[in-house]
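Notebook entry, structure prediction.
Reason for the run: the old model in the group folder had no record of what sequence produced it. Starting over properly, with the input documented here first.
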Amino acid sequence: MIDYIKIKVTDSKTIVRLWNNPLLYFYSKNEFLLFDNETIKTRNTKQFNGILFELTEHVLYIRFKPHYFFNSNIHNANDFSVKDCIEILKQFSTLFKLETKYLEVINIEFGLNIIIPDELICVKDLLAYTIYHGLNEFRTDRKYIYCKFSHSSNKRGAANVYKMVKMYAKGIQFPKNCNKNTLRFEIKSNRKKYINRLDIYTIEDLLQPQRYNNLKNVILKEFDDILIIDSFTTPKINKRRLNKHLERLNPIHWHKLLNRSRNVFKNHFNAYYKDLNTSRTHLKAEIRNLIANKLIELQK
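New structure, fully documented this time:
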């Protein structure tokens, strides 16, 4: 479930022991200006099997991709269970003889892969029909066209890194490692406040299986807030409501609603899914079931 974590180490003894570990080898050295544009800081980076260790003046940062590490740093296209994740983190802490209570988690990415039945929808089409998460529009990644992400922005348009939701066609990214119609759904945060709300503070917390219940619940909650244009399902509603429903199949309609007000958008969102739920099933419901079932599998 854990795709990426950034770890902060401030304990001086742990920093010295880690940085001098013979397993680490030199990766890079960078100098950068602080916000005052006068003070130059140096960041030295070492590496071990894809794990980056960045040393600044008083802090050591570790950038770790557990799911990739699980697959010899080749891909993250298969299932990565809670047990797998805990085992990888234990291997990491044992290898470097670390006390996990000193390893503070300050960035996190977590999610899962699901195989979408071909008869339901093509993953590329699904991404095209997925247009909003909450009040935030999904945007296409500049480097990877079959990846979409959603986040709030400040008044200047800069991304809010508190929480980001990502969806991408994993089967297109890694066609040799998974089914071609594999979708990855992922949550990312670069803020301790958000991570701490998940009851995660240090790596020690990620060694406790029960903590992953919070991740499971967040994945389902965030998916529930997604708006997918579903032109395949005809709700069982009267003609007047059906005409309104058909209007909601136009992405421009939602853009105009959001410009009117946040509450208007939310009311139409709720009405849209209330109408879709009159059918036996619909596209989003089917995908949610796939996610829920996969989450159960990953916690076994």
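Summary: The mean pLDDT is 94.
The old model has been moved to the deprecated folder.
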